[in-house]
Amino acid sequence: MKEFIQSEAKAETAVLVGLITKQQNERKTIEYLDELEFLAETAGAVTVKRFTQKMDGPSSVTYIGKGKLEEIKQYIIAEEDAEREVGMVIFDDELSAKQLRNIEAELKVKILDRTSLILDIFAMRAQTANAKTQVELAQYRYMLPRLQRLWTHLERQGGGSGGGGGKGSVGLRGPGETQLEMDRRIILNRMSLLKQRLAEIDKQKTTQRKNRGRMIRVALVGYTNVGKSTLINLLAKSDVFAENKLFATLDTTVRKVIIGNLPFLLADTVGFIRKLPTDLVDSFKSTLDEVREADLLIHVVDVSHPDFADQIAVVEKTLADLGCADKPSLMVFNKIDAYTWTEKDPDDLTPATKENISLEQLKNTWMAKMGGDCIFISARERENIDDLKDLFYERIKQMHTQKYPYNDFLFQNYEDMAMEE
Asked: Collapsing DSSP states into helix, strand and coil, what is residue 383?
């Protein structure tokens, strides 16, 4: 019997490309590329090089200038000569079919944009039939306007060249149909089928939500990788998948949580991200309905992230797009155990930056801004979790008694009775 030596699969290497524009300065571009690198890492690729270019806006032909494209091409050739093959080039914005075609023709490697990378991660993370259907629909929506680039056989004719002496196959004589049109028709039919499936799933989900009884619905929302799944595991004593990677959770998970004598339903939803593709928002309608139908939103924030304020703005904009901006909400600043800051030298007269703000100063700032509607915790280290539960209890109990004045859920807390005796 022969023995086969299995070598470890090498991760694909990636080059990242971003633009510096009037609307997106150099610092912002670096932040976006940091996030793009994290996305690439989540998808299983290793970033080996970054390229940026200052422009008024993306070129409609090749996204970046010809000179920069040539620079990237020469880098790829040099790496290949050194036996370090570059697997792909990833652009930080969504590319049109024309841009993709022109860039690919020049660089001769796999070209991805931010949207296709996110879709790839979603496809990898999808576990349930619901999530898989939503991801497939989003992929087809992305693919449809880019069909001309995806196939090499598009100009072939499926039919013949007409009657008489035509050379068409039996049963296919006539004006024919280009392969592009056939592929487009197949995809449109498939999308129609997927939409029907999602409509059926949506009906099932609506029925499930109606059957959940008279309990307040609470939804965890926030940027991706801020610790929502860790928090729901802590509160509901469940085992929702949690990992330090983007989009670790795609499927909405709903758990019953009891704090004291108050039961409520807690939903963990898909994380948001900058430049979230519209196709994904549309496809994940049934998942985001948990947010729309929630009585209370818990906005979880990774306070240790240097750009958490920008992430808050992204989430708030997405919530506004979903029509949920006016819903009652609480802000939970998570990961205080990972927060770092640099104390400013007393002799330094330059203005303080956000890197010089201590956690205590940050708490005071947000408490003054939001009153009692925010709290600072560490779900991983279980810091301030009792205070979090107390805050949840007060807010949810108030909502519960208003919504269900003749409730039969606020039963006697027998633990307190035992302590009193």
From this structure: strand
